[in-house]
Write a structure and sequence with these properties.
The protein is an all-alpha fold and 120 residues long. It has one domain. The chain has helices at 2-22, 26-54, 61-64, 71-79, 82-119. The N and C termini lie far apart (52 Å).
């Protein structure tokens, strides 16, 4: 479930980056889409490596083994894995990166738009 939500967020981000680039040109749209795919692929690999170094092989099982056989325990065993933790770490890192990347890009577009309006 965690992984599905994060994959859906990345799909939405890819569509947004494509549409933002489409305003200027098709090349810009493809470049934005390829940036998202490349950062996701490389970032997930690195995040899985880093999480694997600190996260035990049994995952959250070490913390909840003394619980009885409850639905919550089964859910946590199924959802809190190395892959889901690496996707969470990746998403946090990407959020910081894209915030800076898109923030600067939006500021430039706004300045250009203001300059064009002032020249009219």
């Amino acid at each position: 479930m965690i992984a599905a939500i994060i994959f859906a967020m990345h799909a939405i981000l890819a569509v947004v980056m494509f549409l933002r680039g489409k305003r200027t040109s098709t090349e810009e749209a493809v470049l934005g889409l390829s940036l998202v795919v490349l950062i996701f692929a490389i970032g997930w690999t690195l995040a899985t490596f880093l999480v694997g170094l600190v996260w035990p092989e049994r995952g959250i099982g070490l913390l909840i083994d003394n619980w009885g056989d409850t639905p919550t325990k089964r859910f946590l065993y199924r959802e809190i894995t190395v892959d889901s933790m690496s996707l969470v770490l990746l998403s946090v890192g990407e959020a910081v990166f894209y915030r800076g990347y898109l923030g600067r890009k939006m500021e430039k577009e706004e300045k250009n738009r203001r300059g064009d309006e002032a020249n009219r």
